[in-house]
């Protein structure tokens, strides 16, 4: 369960340029006492509503930084930043690279996917869990920010379930757009099939972008 010992360590303004060239400003928080000892951060945009919009984003260096088309993380992050700038709210950036298995192991999993394994089976073949994430630190960060009730921006029912189980009131959820292409269609299909992600997938590249 979230520890009450977690507190805000620092806050600082961060001007941001979004992919479309427009600018935003966020307050970036660091934390003291998070249970896994990692450097997770939260970004606050504008004046969040009484039930703030929250994106809990799992780190994906290849997608978030380099624009990898193997997954949908980059466009989901971009969409989240735009929506949060417009509506106010929080983005929690969780250091859960590769669904918790780490960057190198994720790259190894990509090799296995090239040989026909799906994204979950590849993790298991490497000796990892299919999805090793939990959302304990997310709940700790929200509590430290004084946020106990949220609207969650996600297609992943597990995030809602786990956060609720950790005492965060997920009053509503909002789906992100669907960002599919020939490169990530099999990956997105596996997410729908195996973890119940709420994505409506048409033929590659023809899905709604919002
Ligand atoms: N192990 C592994 N991790 C991946 C792979 N593709 C993306 N990831 C990681 O998966 C995480 C993102 O998870 P997703 O399943 O895309 O989305 P989600 O966070 O469950 O759900 P949303 O809230 O809807 O985005 C990030 O940590 C990525 O680094 C892959 O093929 N293998
Ligand atoms: Zn990704």
TrEMBL record:
Keywords: GTP-binding, Hydrolase, Metal-binding, Nucleotide-binding, Riboflavin biosynthesis, Zinc. Pathway: Cofactor biosynthesis; riboflavin biosynthesis; 5-amino-6-(D-ribitylamino)uracil from GTP: step 1/4. Residues 27-172 form the GTP cyclohydrolase II domain. One of its GO terms (cellular component) is cytosol. GO terms for biological process: riboflavin biosynthetic process. Pfam families: GTP_cyclohydro2. It catalyses: GTP + 4 H2O = 2,5-diamino-6-hydroxy-4-(5-phosphoribosylamino)-pyrimidine + formate + 2 phosphate + 3 H(+). It comes from the Bacteria. Its EC number is 3.5.4.25. Its cofactor is Zn(2+). GO terms for molecular function: GTP binding; GTP cyclohydrolase II activity; metal ion binding. InterPro entries: GTP_cyclohydro_II, RibA, RibA-like_sf. CDD domains: GTP_cyclohydro2. It is an enzyme of class 3 (hydrolase). NCBIfam families: PRK00393.1. Catalyzes the conversion of GTP to 2,5-diamino-6-ribosylamino-4(3H)-pyrimidinone 5'-phosphate (DARP), formate and pyrophosphate. In the N-terminal section; belongs to the DHBP synthase family. This is GTP cyclohydrolase II. It comes from Orrella dioscoreae.
């Amino acid at each position: 369960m979230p520890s009450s010992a977690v507190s805000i360590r620092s806050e600082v303004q961060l001007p941001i340029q979004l992919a479309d060239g427009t600018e935003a400003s966020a307050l970036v928080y660091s934390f003291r006492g998070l249970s896994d000892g990692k450097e997770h951060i939260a970004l606050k945009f504008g004046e969040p509503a009484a039930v703030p919009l929250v994106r809990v984003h799992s780190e994906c260096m290849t997608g978030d930084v380099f624009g990898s088309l193997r997954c949908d993380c980059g466009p989901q992050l971009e969409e989240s930043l735009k929506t949060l700038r417009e509506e106010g709210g929080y983005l929690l950036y969780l250091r859960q690279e590769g669904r918790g298995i780490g960057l190198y192991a994720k790259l190894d999993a990509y090799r296995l996917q090239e040989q026909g394994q799906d994204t979950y089976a590849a993790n298991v073949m490497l000796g990892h869990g299919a999805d090793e994430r939990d959302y304990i630190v997310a709940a700790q960060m929200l509590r430290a920010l004084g946020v106990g009730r949220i609207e969650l921006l996600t297609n992943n029912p597990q995030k809602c379930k786990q956060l609720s189980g950790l005492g965060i009131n997920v009053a509503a959820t909002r789906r992100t757009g669907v960002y599919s292409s020939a490169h990530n269609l099999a990956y997105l299909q596996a997410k729908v099939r195996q973890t119940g992600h709420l994505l409506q997938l048409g033929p590659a590249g023809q899905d709604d972008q919002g």
